[in-house]
Write a structure and sequence with these properties.
- The chain is built from 26 helices and 18 strands.
- The chain is globular and about 85 Å long.
- The chain is α/β, with parallel strands linked by helices and 667 residues long.
- Strand 17 and strand 18 form a beta hairpin.
- Helix 15 runs parallel beside helix 17 and helix 23 runs antiparallel to helix 24.
- It has 4 domains: 207 residues, Nucleotide cyclase, GGDEF domain (Alpha-Beta Plaits, 2-Layer Sandwich); 204 residues, Rossmann fold (3-Layer(aba) Sandwich), CATH 3.40.50.300; 61 residues, no CATH class; 151 residues, Arc Repressor Mutant, subunit A.
């Protein structure tokens, strides 16, 4: 049969169009998923051509639904299966988790489908699935939204080997994927397997199901939090806001900061302190794929508020929900049915998180706000929305209602999010806390706990601190990667360096996080950021403008977008002040994702731009010009500028290109 055309759902297509450079060739951290039908030739012969065509048509529709629900891209159809990418064309910091969620959804949806085929056609329909994570080179094929990609490299081949080694109905993971998702899913060792094209034996795992942790803060809690350092000023501000709420001046407060800077940890620390003091606490955590799940944040908040647990008996959950609704004198039987259905505790559990009509949505919003007001009349109440930049649109509408409802109550709503998060109430005075990186002394305290305080580890602590630049998550992930690689080992309660650490590698988790932030930018801003990354960690607007050439008209808007996202900032308030990357690892990732050919061309462009922007002061910048010519592969120009830099020539005239005839005479 003719293979179906790969397509991209509208919500993802819009994001791709906003980030035009997502379609360019780049290096991407991704998870590759392969699914195919076992023994499809025999099944097709038994079913007949027309019936098998209908079977595959439905099969591919189920696959596409699951892949697109978690914003994956179907890369290609393989005859009786698909290859899908998670993390391309738009990067995702949780690409491996998304791929696992999609694989589990595929398996769940196909169980009923397979049962129907066995009953109707006598076919034993089964699939096998394989996943592998790593870096690939991707690029668009064609000129429309088909999203057909080339994906090259060892990562793709190993994903295919995972699929081929899987048993019927099983989901086989490589060791690399298992390491990324272990805190969030239940995995079972599948032994060591000899795979074609892989030297030695490969350690593999089977994906059994979702785990207890859904977010990074939950995984950190399960592993054991590292030391909480600093943040005295921010904690005092949160305590003051709760004190005002306890006196009847309720409201909302935003905690904003770059990813990994400690927003969730700060809010969690405050919540634990307040819970111990008798404050009622309810939390809603928004996972990275939460935008694609309508009402997801509201569902979690309501379950947390009512104390309904995931692993308890439905009858217990129903009792808790009904007891909560009894605090509202206006709530009737229809309201109880609405809430129970929404919580997945009604007659049809599949209705969980669904509201099928606008009046019911408005009533659900009103009931939830009423429950909060009733609770706060009895005791101070704290409501937390964690990682709100990923909140779904429906829950965002509810949050607006809640902000109005908690005014003049004993409730405090805290919303933590990244700098790009926008909400009307955030513009009001006193409604936001900006979370800065840790100070040097605070970073040292954290690293002494993570690595150790021995003098032989002092140099390593300094190197990690410089690389993390006050970001606790980056510091923790860097240290964790050193332990996983065997460079650091624990020996009788102490930490020692087991082998020389020549270079601190960028952890996969940090690389994916920063790549996702960059891909979330509009196309013009992303292009400017990548060009700035080629210039260096510090760059001047005139050089960037000269390098952009005809595209320089977009520079002002792009720089404003980059500053709003917290990725770059001017070094001072002076109009001519150069810009710098807010975090050095952002520059490193923005540079690393570019293909070598693109980087070479951009270094050539930057070298020329430097000569144009600093035509009157080239002597000061000769070494930098030489550096870019060298990386552009032009050894003769690099050598010329190195000599000028060594001679400390101050008055350098730019070399002008001669017409072809003149070049011949010049020779």
């Amino acid at each position: 049969m003719a293979q179906p055309r790969a397509y991209t759902p509208n919500h993802l297509a819009e994001r791709i169009l906003r980030s035009r450079s997502a379609l360019e060739g780049e290096r991407k951290p991704v998870t590759v998923l392969f699914v195919d039908v076992i023994d499809s030739v025999r099944l097709s012969e038994r079913a007949g051509a027309e019936a098998w065509h209908r079977v595959l048509d439905r099969f591919f529709a189920l696959l596409a639904d699951a892949v697109h629900r978690f914003e994956g891209t179907i890369n290609q159809y393989t005859g009786d299966g698909v290859m899908a990418l998670f993390g391309a064309p738009i990067a995702h910091e949780d690409h491996a988790q998304r791929a696992c969620h999609a694989a589990l959804l595929i398996r769940a949806q196909l169980r009923g489908f397979a049962a129907d085929l066995r009953r109707q056609l006598g076919l034993r329909f089964a699939i096998r699935t394989g996943l592998n994570s790593g870096e690939v080179i991707v690029g668009a094929i064609g000129d429309d939204l088909r999203m057909d990609y080339t994906a090259q490299g060892h990562t793709v081949g190993l994903a295919a080997r995972m699929q081929q080694s899987a048993n019927a109905g099983k989901i086989r993971l490589s060791e690399g994927t298992a390491a990324l998702v272990a805190p969030y899913f239940e995995l079972a060792p599948a032994g060591r397997t000899r795979l074609k094209g892989v030297r030695g034996f490969a350690k593999t795992f089977e994906l059994a199901g979702p785990g207890a942790n859904r977010t990074r803060i939950e995984a950190s809690r399960a592993r054991g939090f590292s030391r909480f350092v600093g943040r005295e000023r921010e904690l005092a501000a949160l305590d003051a806001a709760l004190a005002r709420a306890a006196d009847g001046d309720g409201g909302v407060l935003g905690v904003l900061g770059a990813p990994g800077v400690g927003k969730s940890r700060l809010c969690q620390h405050a919540a634990e302190r307040w819970r111990a003091q008798g404050v009622a606490v309810a939390e809603a955590r928004c996972p990275p794929h939460g935008k694609a799940l309508p009402f997801a944040a509201l569902l979690e908040l309501l379950r947390s508020f009512l104390g309904v647990l995931d692993d308890e008996r439905p009858a217990t959950g129903r009792k808790k929900a009904r007891d909560g609704l009894r605090t509202l004198r206006t709530a009737g039987p229809d309201d109880a049915a609405l809430v129970l259905d929404f919580l997945g505790l009604g007659k049809d559990p599949s209705k969980a998180g669904r509201v099928d009509a606008r009046p019911k949505r408005e009533r659900l919003f009103a009931l939830t706000c009423g429950l909060v007001q009733a609770r706060s009349a009895r005791s101070p109440t704290f409501l937390l929305f964690d990682d709100a930049q990923w909140m779904d649109a429906e829950s965002e509408v509810f949050l607006g209602r809640l902000v109005d409802a908690v005014a003049f109550t004993r409730s405090l709503v805290v919303v933590n999010a990244r700098p790009e998060y926008v909400a009307p109430w955030l513009t009001e005075p006193g409604r936001r806390i900006e979370l800065a990186p840790l100070a040097a002394g605070e970073s040292e305290l954290l690293l002494r706990e993570l690595i150790g305080d021995g003098p032989e580890l002092a140099e390593l602590r300094t190197r990690v601190a410089a690389r993390a630049a006050g970001n606790p998550f980056f510091a923790e992930e860097t240290v964790q990667s050193l332990f996983e690689s065997g460079a650091l080992v624990r020996d009788n309660g102490a930490v020692r360096i087991a082998r020389p650490i020549e270079e601190l590698e960028l952890p996969v988790s940090v690389q994916a996080l920063l790549a996702a932030r960059i891909d979330a930018l509009p196309g013009g801003a992303k292009h400017v950021l990548q060009l700035a990354a080629v210039i260096g960690k510090r760059f001047a607007e005139p050089v960037l403008r000269a390098a952009l050439g005809e595209q320089a008209g977009e520079l002002g808007e792009a720089l404003r977008a980059l500053q709003a996202a917290g990725l770059v900032h001017p070094e001072s308030a002076e109009p001519s002040a150069p810009f710098t990357f807010t975090h050095p690892l952002t520059q490193e990732v923005a540079y690393a994702v570019q293909l070598q050919e693109a980087r070479v061309e951009r270094h050539r462009t930057v070298a020329t731009a430097l000569q144009s922007a600093y035509a009157q002061r080239l002597g000061e910048h000769a070494a930098l010009v030489a550096h870019h010519w060298a990386l552009a592969g032009n050894r003769s120009e690099a050598g010329r500028w190195r000599r000028l830099a060594a001679l400390q020539v101050t008055n350098i005239q730019p070399r002008r290109e001669l017409p072809p005839d003149a070049r011949k005479r010049h020779r």
